[in-house]
Automatic annotation (TrEMBL):
Keywords: ATP-binding, Cytoplasm, Nucleotide-binding, Nucleotidyltransferase, Transferase, tRNA processing
Protein's UniProt keywords contain Hydrolase: no
Full protein name: Threonylcarbamoyl-AMP synthase
Binding positions (ATP): 54, 58, 63, 114, 118, 140, 148, 191, 227
Length: 312
């Protein structure tokens, strides 16, 4: 079910073809193995969450073949350009302002206006990104809540049968995830990782704030950023009340539907795009049909619950 691909031209070509077909492929980076999918394809990105059995839609890192292509997907403020020049390709992820209309799946950013990007240094990762020729969304290639994989064996132990293929590049050199630095919406140091905080501070000429230690987490969502629509949201609705727009699922048709056939993969793929659309159309009250609490349904329900929580 899950193909193991050799680290040669044929293996890379096969991996790139599977990505182009909307499948998920695990591949080595210098930090850990990533579970990749075409970042422009909603269903392919939904498959990542499904394979990992991830109970939440956390935003994902987009992997690019070279720093030059970053500008196609996001803005590169001067500090970001300096960090990129110093540490890319390498174990640094930058959170940058997303370019509107970039064409990335909103599932990649979990609907946020920022995008996490990284240009990995691993030869196979770069060859694969080059061969595929597009942006690849990839979290670590492990089932949710388990250790990050640093060999193809780890990947197979956790995800065999749930992903299309793993490109076997042997053990990862760095072995811990990338360091994450945000330049938007606020400059901050989000995750310690392969590049030391001191090296980042040296490059910028000053240290960065670390959310959670310098800020008191009073506002929910400050630490775990998430997108919420402007309108109110009511869950488990079977009919619309006065003034509500009903977002359907399966047999509950609604004004719009997450998935008319009741397919959770399709519902996940549509979720953020439909919420954004309702926002744009000025929907003040949104009601959502019940979503089965299984598989991807748990991640969908997690997002909906957060979006439904009253905001100050
Ligand atoms: O080394 C790595 O970074 C590996 C390899 C595969 O590249 N990837 C990885 O991805 O560790 P993941 O999904 O396990 O961690 C990505 C983290 C998430 O915790 C998420 O919160 C954060 O990046 N992130 C992604 N997009 C973000 C955004 N727009 N704003 C803030 N944080 C973001
Ligand atoms: Mg991870």
């Amino acid at each position: 079910m899950t193909e193991t691909l050799a680290p040669d031209n044929a293996g890379i070509a096969r991996a790139a073809a599977l990505l182009a077909a909307g499948e998920t492929v695990a591949f080595p980076t210098e930090t850990v193995y990533g579970l990749g999918a075409d970042a422009r394809d909603d269903r392919a990105v939904a498959r990542i969450f499904e394979a990992k059995n991830r109970p939440r839609f956390n935003p994902l890192i987009v992997h690019l073949a070279d720093a030059a292509s970053v500008a196609e997907w996001c803005e590169l403020p001067p500090d970001a350009a300096r960090l990129a020049a110093s540490f890319w390709p390498g174990a640094l992820t930058l959170v940058l302002p997303l370019r509107p209309g970039s064409g990335l799946s909103p599932l990649v950013t979990a609907g946020l206006p920022t995008l996490a990007v990284r240009v990995p240094a691993h030869r196979l990762a770069r060859d694969l990104l080059q061969a595929f020729g597009g942006p690849v969304a990839a979290p670590s290639a492990n089932p949710s809540g388990r250790l990050s994989p640093t060999t193809a064996d780890h990947v197979r132990a956790g995800l065999a049968g749930r992903i299309a293929a793993v490109l076997d590049g042997g053990p990862c050199d760095v072995g811990v995830e990338s360091t994450i630095v945000a330049l938007a919406p606020e400059p901050s140091f989000l995750r310690a990782g392969g590049i030391p905080a001191e090296a980042i501070a040296n490059c910028l000429g000053h240290p960065l704030a670390t959310p959670g230690t310098t800020e008191t987490p009073t506002a929910p969502g400050q630490l775990a950023s998430h997108y919420a629509p402007a309108g109110t949201l009511r869950l488990n609705a079977t009919t619309a009340r006065d003034g509500e727009t009903l977002l359907g699922f399966g047999k509950i048709r609604g004004d719009l539907s997450l998935s008319p056939s009741g397919d959770l993969l399709e519902a996940a793929a549509n979720l953020f795009a439909l919420l954004h659309r309702l926002d744009r159309e000025g929907a003040e009250h949104i009601a959502v049909a019940p979503i089965p609490h299984e598989g991807l349904g748990r991640a969908i329900n997690d997002r909906l619950r957060r979006a439904a929580t009253p905001r100050p």
